[in-house]
């Protein structure tokens, strides 16, 4: 029996980068709130810079590289999609709305029929 493929952070360099990215991520929000007496633009700049540093450190690790590869594959697959024309999209939307209305009508009729059967016929409770 084949062993399941489990990906883990294997190198100590990756662990260090991930730790530094986590610390930078937390530092971004800490800096934003600790600089509450400063002007807003300075707080936002500190937040954005530290978040950028965190993202940059993460993207240098193996999980970050895997995320980049996954994103590139996803974009490549989305480009292969054949999107419907406007007329076709409107027709399909109309079909969906029509089906929803028919299903709502069916469920309402079923509900009222069961209500009549149970409360009026079987139990004899008149409203």
UniProtKB/TrEMBL annotation:
Annotated localization: Membrane
Recorded GO molecular functions are: protein transmembrane transporter activity
Which domain of life does this protein belong to? Bacteria
Task: Give one GO biological process term.
Answer: protein secretion
State the UniProt keywords alphabetically.
Cell membrane, Membrane, Protein transport, Translocation, Transmembrane, Transmembrane helix, Transport
- Its primary localisation, in coarse terms, equals membrane
GO cellular component, as recorded: plasma membrane
> Signal peptide span per the entry?
none
TM spans (from-to): 18-35, 41-60, 89-109
How does the record describe its quaternary structure? Component of the Sec protein translocase complex. Heterotrimer consisting of SecY, SecE and SecG subunits. The heterotrimers can form oligomers, although 1 heterotrimer is thought to be able to translocate proteins. Interacts with the ribosome. Interacts with SecDF, and other proteins may be involved. Interacts with SecA.
Q: State the family it belongs to.
A: Belongs to the SecE/SEC61-gamma family.
HAMAP family found in the cross-reference section: SecE (MF_00422)
Q: What does this protein do?
A: Essential subunit of the Sec protein translocation channel SecYEG. Clamps together the 2 halves of SecY. May contact the channel plug during translocation.
**Protein name per Swiss-Prot or TrEMBL:** Protein translocase subunit SecE
Source organism (scientific name): Thiomonas delicata (Thiomonas cuprina)
Taxonomic lineage is: Bacteria, Pseudomonadati, Pseudomonadota, Betaproteobacteria, Burkholderiales
